[in-house]
């Protein structure tokens, strides 16, 4: 192979819609259920450096055997406990795709948009099986990039009568409420506390960057679904009290310190887990079975979705002539090294 295709951020935005991202995430969950996904051991390799850099490097690798495609996700972000750049455009984020049959390079894809929408889509698509039948009120705890992308995904599935939201800064949530009330033509109301939002919601989304416990189990009303998107959105002590707990993948979550600490502390166990999302998507285990069930849906994010999405984008870019062809070493092998 003489070239590798570089796909820039603007092209990924052009080629990937919200509904497409959700469908790809659903397809990849089904692949997991069929056992056709292989990833590295451990699933995530990390380099976390404190003072003075506050730099966090993560490397994740997977092969989707059914496609087939292999990929590596490389990203780094800054987090000093005050500033966190994990969702911002100025941190390093790339997907490298190659052919698993030959190891030939295929593409380098900027993953800022794909990561942002995947993080929401992979969780929200599971609500097709786990949400209340006709949710009226959506509650958003955190209204940053994650909250906005969850809302974009949710409007593909449901028509809410109202949205309630909260965040750390009143001015930010007020601006969010004005923007989305106008876009969706429904009331978007701001509330002062997380408890008010969760208690009111039929579907509550926890999507903050906080390292502290954010929500409590007893705030979730009968028949509601709480979606935890990372870290400690839901108090670990309350996990076992839900009627069903569904996560994206057990082994993947065990690489996350907060999840592993909860298991080691005996607050939750694999025996108490209802299902992985893939098992529900594939019909191997039931989704919601009662109007009164309280369900916790927790995701930490899986590189298989990132690779699946970027593979589809590559195929579309190649067909439409998008992207920038970069020469490989094979194409430049006539250049002899200098002695």
Kindly describe this structure.
The protein is of the alpha/beta class and 339 residues long. The chain is built from eleven helices and 15 strands. Helix 2 crosses helix 11 (303-320), helix 3 (112-124) crosses helix 5 (145-154) and helix 3 packs across helix 11. The two termini are 27 Å apart.
**Biggest sheet details:** 8 strands, parallel
Mean pLDDT metric: 95
What's the order of the H and E elements?
EHHEEEEEHHEHEHEHEEEHHEHEHE
* Content-based structural category: alpha/beta
C-alpha-based Rg, rounded: 21 Å
Distance between the termini: 27 Å
Please give the share of residues in helix.
25-40%
Major sheet: arrangement of strands: 9-8-7-10-11-14-12-13
Determine the strand fraction and express it as a percent band: 25-35%
Number of β-strand runs: 15
List low-confidence stretches.
none
Shape: globular
| Tally of contiguous helical segments | 11
